[in-house]
Amino acid sequence: MTGSLRVPGDKSISHRSIMLGALAEGTTRISGFLEGEDSLATLRAFQAMGVDIQGPDRGRVTINGVGMHGLEAPDKPLDLGNSGTSMRLLAGLLAGQGLPITLVGDDSLSSRPMRRVTDPLRQMGARVETSASGTAPLMIHPVQRLSGIDYRLPVASAQIKSCLLLAGLYAEGVTRVTEPAPTRDHTERMLKGFGYPVEQVAGSASVRGGGVLKACDIDVPADISSAAFFLVGASIARGSELLLKHVGINPTRDGVITILRLMGADIEVLDPRDVGGEPVADLRVRSSALRGIRIPVDQVPLAIDEFPALFVAAACAEGETVLTGAEELRVKESDRIQVMAEGLARLGVDVTPTPDGIVIRGGSISGGRVESHGDHRIAMSFAVAGLRADGGIEIDHCNNVNTSFPGFVELASGCGLGISAHKED
Ligand code: S3P
Description:
With 425 residues, the protein is α/β, with parallel strands linked by helices.
């Protein structure tokens, strides 16, 4: 793989830019917005709640904020498609609006656990119902008021943390969330960017309800989770040198760089800079001989979305790679441990799934046909595996690649990963 490229905008930051821009006073201008289905689901949800949002047009979005209490009840359920971030963050943001709102999603999203957000929201006084199995649809009923809570997260999850902080904007008193391990802190950073005070002390973040958000301009960096496919691809493909431009390297997201470097990858961080409160850099990656490692458990939340790609790196490494402490991977867009294990096994890789991780013994990858189970990151990871496979890899059910990475096929082809996409139903 050779060349230089900029992958699309960060998904997490794109979601949050719409949410906070919609509730702000004044006009928020966003550039670099991810025009993927997930962040578009958030954008459309706010349009359906009466917010004037222009774009996206080549990554530019303009939001005329309605203020903290200006949202209107939508006339039908908000459809959040495949997007767990939209559903969990909106559950919190909408819990204290005093509006009746139902949140629905696709089959994958409708099977993901939601009590992790509805239980603490109820403790705050919200009325949010799930299905009997604790999944979407989520029914939000109007309540008089929310009260701040002091909540210790049972799992390291930025979605739960963000959900509660967003609900906390509408609660009486202080809402404090303490996490068992650091998770992505884009919500905290962006709240501050919109002039909303957030107190951060030793593993906890707190907000006091009743404040206001002031519109600001946001430059969304390229998504390190999308860059990850190229970091792995260029590491495993012989003779590679790639430059990935303007990538967000927030320390709560950079586990993929740390883990790949521990495996022997050659990744340089060039021109590190601050862009609107988020660290950004260009990344140069060259081919290298990877070796298997025991992945440090503290890196798991910092690389949580990058494991499908990292498993492909492990399959190309010499020796054994062991992942533990990653049971959360089983409740992502698919069960990423099982689905990757099955696919890699089909490609002749020696792999053993465990309840909270996987053991992969590196070697050669053969061609074959694998199932992505409609999970965008699984599909792209197997595409990257094609760089080292002895034969072609055929991947089924790839349409959801557009949820996080529109243009993946073209961008990957442009730097040497030959992919042909076929229409699917
Ligand atoms: C996200 C948080 C992560 C991640 C997801 C996006 C976010 O989920 O997997 O893709 O934007 O807050 P968890 O925090 O639930 O692990």
